[in-house]
Write a structure and sequence with these properties.
Blueprint: E1 8-14, H1 22-32, E2 37-43, H2 49-58, E3 63-66, E4 80-81, H3 83-88, E5 93-95, E6 100-102, H4 105-114, E7 123-127, H5 131-142, E8 147-152, H6 155-167, E9 174-178, H7 183-186, E10 191-194, E11 220-223, H8 232-239, E12 243-245, H9 247-263, H10 269-279
Parallel strand pairs: 1-2, 1-3, 4-6, 7-8, 7-10, 8-9, 10-11, 11-12
Antiparallel strand pairs: 3-5, 5-6
Helix pairs in contact: 1-10, 4-5, 4-9, 9-10
Length: about 280
């Protein structure tokens, strides 16, 4: 990639950002399509968030991804917020054309799962009630899930999220419960989504949130954890002959969606996936 006088800049703001996998993924896509764009990471101290957004607009930066700790605070510096991002209350993508914020994390999960099955009319169990669960829950509702059960260690957090999703009017059936009761939910579930960090590096030998013994063969099992690629939960799904969906796919498709928002072009997902796997040292 050659940086020229005409090169368009997109990037990431977060704190810290140096271990991000997004620059190699997006730059591989720009290279593949011979687009005059470059993606860079900016470490922005929380105290400087407002001036970073104003400055980026003045510098004619085309788009940002937004990561921890800015996903919620950045909302107040935007002119427009996409409807679902507004319900979620967090954005991970900014389009500077109209200073509009989007949340592509949830849609990343939708697209990852849709490689195997559609979301529509499905009975979905979601473990965890943090930021990833929030983005994913609203998007499952938006894409026509029949029922969502949010199971969490702290049941109050699950109840609060379930209430917010119900209140959105996107879906009529949202329950909350303890993650300890997960086995009771698997028989009637079509899709299990794990948004807890259980099994994440370096704790790769954690007890999985659910055992393969309780999974049926048609169950789609998506683990948002992407390091390691094959988590303890995915191992259980494989053992049970269920249908595994790997966390890296969510990373991939959230990036592909951001790419489309900024450039108006479909992202070259195969090239982006290859770059991601290289960055994460996966095969
Ligand atoms: N693939 C992707 O693109 C992608 C994107 C975003 C996040 N993620 C992954 O998703 C995971 C969660 O991220 P997040 O931002 O949602 O984190 P978060 O906001 O901190 O939420 C963590 C959730 O996991 C639960 N939890 C934490 N430790 C647990 C344990 N030992 N046993 C059972 N439940 C536990 C928490 O329960 P309490 O409410 O009880 O504390 C909470 O509901 C991380 O592993 C992250 O890497 C992946």
């Amino acid at each position: 990639m050659k940086i020229k006088g005409s090169t368009n800049i997109v990037g990431l703001i977060g704190h810290p950002v140096e271990h991000s996998f997004s620059p190699p993924m997006h730059n591989a896509a720009f290279k593949k399509l011979a687009m005059d764009y470059a993606y860079v990471a900016f470490d922005v101290d929380p105290d400087n968030l407002k001036s970073a957004i104003i400055g980026a607009k003045s510098l004619n930066i085309k788009g940002f991804n937004v990561t921890i700790p800015h996903k919620i605070e950045v909302l107040e510096f935007l002119d427009e917020i996409d409807e679902v991002a507004n319900l979620i209350g967090a954005v991970n993508t900014i389009d500077f054309k109209n200073l509009k914020g989007y949340n592509t994390d949830g849609i990343g999960a939708v697209k990852a799962i849709e490689e195997i099955t559609s979301i529509k009319n499905k009975n979905i169990v979601i473990a965890g009630a943090g930021g990833a669960s929030r983005a994913i829950s609203f998007y499952m509702a938006k894409f026509g899930a029949e029922a969502i059960s949010i199971l969490n260690r702290n049941v109050d957090n699950a109840e609060k999220l379930a209430g917010d999703v119900l209140e959105s009017g996107l879906i009529g059936n949202v329950k909350s419960d303890s993650i300890l009761d997960i086995d009771d939910y698997l028989d009637s579930a079509d899709i299990l989504i794990d948004t807890t960090p259980v099994g994440m590096h370096p704790n790769i030998n954690d007890n999985p949130i659910a055992s393969g013994e309780n999974m049926h063969e048609d169950l789609v099992v998506f683990d948002a954890v992407y390091n390691p690629n094959e988590t303890v939960l995915i191992k259980e799904a494989i053992k049970a002959n269920a249908k595994p969906v790997y966390g890296i796919k969510m990373l991939l498709y959230q990036g592909a969606e951001s790419f489309k928002i900024w450039t108006g072009r479909d992202a070259p997902v195969e090239v982006m996936e290859k770059a991601l796997k290289q960055t994460l040292n996966l095969k």
